[in-house]
Amino acid sequence: MDIFNTKKFDLCVIGTGSSGLITALEYSKLHPEKQIILIEFGNKSIKNTNALDDSIKISNLKNHHPPYECTNKGFGGTSATWGGRCVNFDEVDFIERPIVNNGCTWDVPFYKDVEKYLLPAAEYFECGEAKFNLNDLAKFKDDRIAEGFVEGDVTDSIVERWSMPTRFGDRYHDDIQRNKNIILLEGFEAINFSVPNDSGIVKDLKIKHVETGDIKTVSSSLFVIATGTQEVTRLLLKNLQLFNNLAKVPDALGKYYQGHISGKIASVKFYGNPQKTEFGFIKDEDGVYLRRRFQYSKDFLVDNNLLNTAIWLDNPLYHNPKHKSGAMSFMYMAMITPFLGKRLAPPAIAQSITKGKVEGLKYHLLNIIKDLPKSLITPATIFYKRYLLKRKLPGIFLYSPQNKYALHFHAEQIPDASNRMYLADDNETLIIDYNILDADALSVIKVHEKLDDYLRGINCGELEYWYKKNELLDAIKSMSRDGIHQSGTTRIADTPEKGVVDRNLQLFGTANVYVCSCSVLPTSGQANPTFFTGALAVKLAHHLK
Q1: 25 vs 34, 36, 39, 500, 518, CA distance in Å?
Q2: Taking all residues of the chain, what is their mean pLDDT, rounded to a whole number?
Q3: CA atoms of 434 and 429, how far apart (whole Å)
Q4: Residues 305 and 299 sit within 8 Å (Cβ to Cβ)
Q5: What mean pLDDT do residues 110-124 have?
Q6: CA atoms of 8 and 204, how far apart (whole Å)
Q7: Position 419 pLDDT exceeds 60
Q8: What pLDDT is attached to residue 401?
Q9: What torsion, rounded to 10 degrees, do the Cα atoms 501, 505, 508, 514 define?
Q10: Sign of the Cα pseudo-torsion (286, 291, 292, 294, in order)
Q11: Higher pLDDT, 337 or 82
């Protein structure tokens, strides 16, 4: 049967990353009689390069990873190199605050509505209960991150959960293949939607075979664009006819691009017993890995007009042999070894560990020798837990007998119209303008100052900065590099004057086209966006009729 000439589908999902797969699987579960088609650009013949990533131009590579380090093409999408961190958004992310420049185009009722879908999302991610506060788990209720810590303006009970299927393509491939109501097309690029009729109905989509260039037409009652932020934005910019029923194309399309400001500028020295410091991962009753983070209360962030920020305990810089850890030196040298390093971590994650530096090799070798046999035993144990178990150890954090840990900050970015994606004159090349504002970095400095004041005030610890005060702003703007947590370019809003999709993720100007991607998130918060977007996918599947 020629599906292109004889079949009209009930749902067409473009993109097979985590949000696309969840949308398709959940919709199929709710409507087993419906027919679904999944369109994926990548296929097994695509190896190292592809036309889409080759046609992306980034204006600021100092602060933004190149496309091949940001995204993946193929079944499962960028989950192929996703670390698995599942974090919920916070209520403060849905409150209009001066610091976000009127960029909060969603609200707390929307957040409360999405909360209903956290549990089924957690089931897809296999990250345990959809509870992200240790105070809600009896096992951890009275535990603290360090001796002497007391919750107040600063909290230590919000956690990240870690997914077991970090590669959604591997995890859900058989589920898709077994589902007789889902057809998967790989190696096809979505290129052109038909013009919406007067009722906003889009009848079909032109797709192009990546290798042969053949054009086919897919007819469907519903369309969901679930590619990553870059390709959602590019596809909509190339299909402005979708907005023909509006007075004009939404001004927000392609603008307000955000990621996260991330890095290390200080260490924390706790005063208490180092053996009572919870520096690494803990496990819940189901064996799911969790990790604590310092965060700030909603009222504190609002009252002090600060960007939402999470800070967690981390290792010192791997590339600097002054840490004197044989295990860290061994792992650093393994990571900078070309053949081995590429297999231990994706490029963006490897770069965040090594900072792209090859230095002090003689001193790293001395660290390894002085710390034998722990220099080899510790990495071997970590390798076993991280690569050979079904539920893998998510990361590597080493105990400090000095009770001193680096602090890794992960901060919200201001939605700013100057950070944007747009097409070049060829109407194909996607140009990305991305910069870190002074206000982004100043908020990071202030939250560190507040953390230092708070820890000293409760006699729990203090911060030790790595830079002089007048160097902090430039240091933060130099060290932070994103492009991995892409959001904002098709943001949710109540009207097309403020956004691109409504709170049901329906594209303004259409009646049957939806966007399910991190691109719809108006604010970035402190959270990695993958899990919350998965919850949006479940919500969307329940909304679609």
Answers
A1: 11, 9, 14, 25, 19
A2: 94
A3: 16
A4: no
A5: 98
A6: 9
A7: yes
A8: 87
A9: 120
A10: negative
A11: 82
